[in-house]
Amino acid sequence: MERKAFIKKCCYAAIGIPILATTLPSCGAIYYATITKDANRLVVKKSEFWYLKPAGRTGGKDKKVNRSFVLIKNDNMEFPICLYKMDIDMYSASLLYCTHRGCELNVGGGIYSCPCHGSEFSVTGKVLEGPAIKDLKTFKTEIDNENIYILQA
User: Fold this and answer.
1) Could you report the per-residue pLDDT of 123-135, keeping only the tens digit for each?
2) What is this structure's pTM?
């Protein structure tokens, strides 16, 4: 490779890698919400769906960033529940337990996917792709001004 071509590729990489890193979701996007229990309900504060992103080196103000989902887990649960924000004051709660062979599901790209055999589910728990044929266990949700309630039956 010629020196000029090498320098050109290095410049593209030096510019492109940081841009790409900011646009791709990362493992840092997985967030376990703080919950409380109230009778037969799990209580999640609506504020768990946002955080302040530091302004960075250029200064300016911190930016309020919204999460599309949070995970919920406590000592009594073998698998986490994903609480997905569908719209303003509209949430879906699904157990991340694959109905095919019982693997824990991954969250990302607007779907739940099984790392074991490839089943895919919508964020409302419906089967999108087999081998699973049964939908995920979902929980009814209720809201008030400050909280989201996940009803456990």
Assistant:
1) 999 999 889 999 9
2) 0.74
